[in-house]
Design a protein that fits this description.
alpha+beta; Glutaredoxin; 222 residues
Length: 222
């Protein structure tokens, strides 16, 4: 008999390690499909909440924010590309790619959860940005992405043209910041146990098995 597992996946759609973490987690859950019945909820985190509408060159941004040299950025992108390839995801970002504001994407993800399509939308947003060179702050592109996973196009347009779900997203962001989340991905199991970073599949499998074992011992609140 499988055990219930609640997963809060705190992430941003412009975070490459969040892609690695998500696909590692999904693969781990596939391995554990006979042991665990998992429910994943994507929680919002903005890496660049003050980013302007036009975005910023990725190499320039990383140099300003983290002090990385162009060579270090290139090496990091190569490492991410290799990890993505292992998990079946194609990273095609390069030194000419741009970083964008992602708040509207998080508003759509909040709505998609209500429609039962949050995971497909999250995956489509990752692919649009990292594989296809899209702009997650462009509302026209966001509408197309939403429609591609089965969400209502007109409803998406209405949400994006208004401030709908803005307060909810900001409140959720504050909840996770107050809980000490400062980097993403942060994967929280059963509201108590956190795994951070784009971890390998085996790390997720081991962590989930340990959490489920402790849960059966009565030490975890589901």
């Amino acid at each position: 008999m499988s055990s219930a597992l609640k997963i809060d996946f705190v992430s941003d759609v412009s975070c490459p390690w969040c892609v690695v973490g998500l696909y590692g987690l999904l693969e781990a859950l596939q391995i554990l499909r006979n042991e665990v019945q998992a429910e994943i909820r994507f929680q919002p985190f903005e890496l660049n909440p003050k980013m302007g509408a036009g975005g910023q060159n990725i190499a320039e941004h990383i140099q300003e924010k983290y002090g990385s040299t162009p060579e270090q950025s290139q090496k990091n992108r190569e490492a991410i590309r290799a990890r993505g390839a292992e998990l079946g995801f194609a990273f095609r970002t390069d030194s000419n790619s741009r970083i964008y504001n992602t708040f509207d994407a998080h508003r759509l993800l909040h709505w998609a959860e209500l429609e039962g399509l949050q995971l497909p939308l999250k995956e489509a947003l990752f692919k649009a940005y990292f594989s296809d060179g899209g702009n997650p702050s462009d509302r026209g592109q966001l509408v197309q992405i939403a429609e591609s996973v089965g969400l209502d196009r007109q409803r998406a347009e209405t949400i994006l043209a208004s401030d709908e779900f803005a307060d909810e997203v900001r409140e959720e962001e504050q909840v996770w910041l107050q809980r000490g989340v400062s980097s993403v991905p942060t994967v929280v199991f059963n509201g108590q146990y956190a795994v951070t970073g784009g971890q390998p599949v085996d790390t997720f499998v081991g962590a989930i098995r340990q959490i489920m074992a402790e849960s059966k011992g009565g030490t975890v609140n589901g």
